[in-house]
Amino acid sequence: MEKQNNNLDFLNKLSNILSEEIYPINTIASLNKHFKENLQIEDAEFIIWDGNNMILKDFIRDYELINNESKTIEINNKFSLLSEKKGEIFYFNDTEFPCDFSFENDYFFEDIIEDENIITFPLVFNKDVFGLMRIRTALKKFTKEFFELLNISSKFISGAIINYNLNEQMEVSLNFYKAMKDIAKIIESQYELSYIIPLIGEMIDRFMHSHLIYIFIYEKDKFKLVWPNACNDKKIFNMLKKLNKKTEYLLSDNSRIGIFPLKNEEKVIGAIAAYSNIDKLSQQDLDYLIQLTKQSELTIERANVYAEVLKHATMDALTGLNNRRQMEIRLGQEVSNAKRNNKELCCMMLDVDYFKKVNDTYGHAAGDCVLKNVSEIIKHEIREYDIACRYGGEEFFIILPQTSSKEAFFVAQRLRKVIENSQIDIKNVASKKSNYLNITVSIGVCAFDKAMSSEIFTQKADKALYKAKTTGRNRVILT
Fold this sequence. Notes:
Blueprint: H1 2-20, H2 24-39, E1 43-50, E2 55-58, H3 69-84, E3 89-92, E4 95-98, E5 117-125, E6 128-137, H4 144-185, H5 193-207, E7 212-219, E8 222-227, H6 234-240, E9 250-251, E10 257-263, E11 268-275, H7 283-310, H8 324-341, E12 345-352, H9 355-362, H10 364-381, E13 387-392, E14 395-401, H11 405-420, E15 424-425, E16 436-437, E17 441-447, H12 454-470, E18 476-478
Helix pairs in contact: 1-2, 1-4, 4-5, 4-7, 5-7, 9-10, 10-11
């Protein structure tokens, strides 16, 4: 009775471990501790069949068992034999036994016991073997009870692993559809390829975390890397040369590099490359990447159409401020008015400090969030008849009619301080875990005189901004 209670306690604790632990790595660590304390097992590892890549992988470390060739051969052979017998047998070292335990206890005291014993039980779901539990122990004496406990444990663990895998597949599917949706939504706020492509790259990269993602655009008869900053693998460039409009995708001989062309109705306009020096691209990976590439094609094509339309528009899509074209029109009008009516006029050029670092560290979506917040602060801090524009990238241009240089300098300093003291919420968009971001800006201010043209007026503000940037940033320079 006491032995029976001990066995029930063992299984109850096992059940608790499998139901309470959230992360697989913690589950396996707790199982090993439990086995060691109660069954004198040195360690247990769980090997599962990866149907996408047609290989056996360690459930936790998730890599192909290639670090030890003899071990890999042994595991593959046992998995094949266990699969043939539909999980009705287990192995004590290299000797096969039935899982109904129709053998004599004292059989285990014969020649098959070694200094270190390996016991292999099948992991079974719906009568199909999908992996194996591999136990290592230095025990010299075994009972039928010991193996029965291991057999029951393997069934409990099989169910838990299946649940983990189903949850992981569900999460991958949700992440895939989120990536597709996010790529489609980019053009709601962006239409410039210099912004869109890094955003697409980051979204696909977050989804395909086991592979590096590269995006190329085809220009002047060659592929130009647009995202990220560098690609040093010659195989990728050699594969790019083989792309044509009929290509669905190209796969390297070892299946670790995939090239997916970006096409419009007429030609190849670019490519997305996925690369890893460890993991092969599974058929599921290929299917996901094909669909993500097609969505990227649509987004880029729509962005090009929008860009053409917005050339004639007046507002910047991301910030809601006047765009550069409208800024040039309004500046010309204000310069003419200042000359004609002998009115004071100032302008300021504002630039977000270390903006590239924001994009590189937190992602372009966080960079967009910064630009939107700076735009809102500018709108709030200037007068109704002042004219704020997005000049380009992270630069802003503000026209201040009927404003002296002293007043303009005061406005610029106030704007600089408000931005410096603001916390920008990026927790929902940052690629790196972070809640808030503090930024600073540099500002160049220029007072107009009648001898200036609009171009000279703008250039002087730009030079003042450059001086602010090169003398320490987070400051205002008046020229």
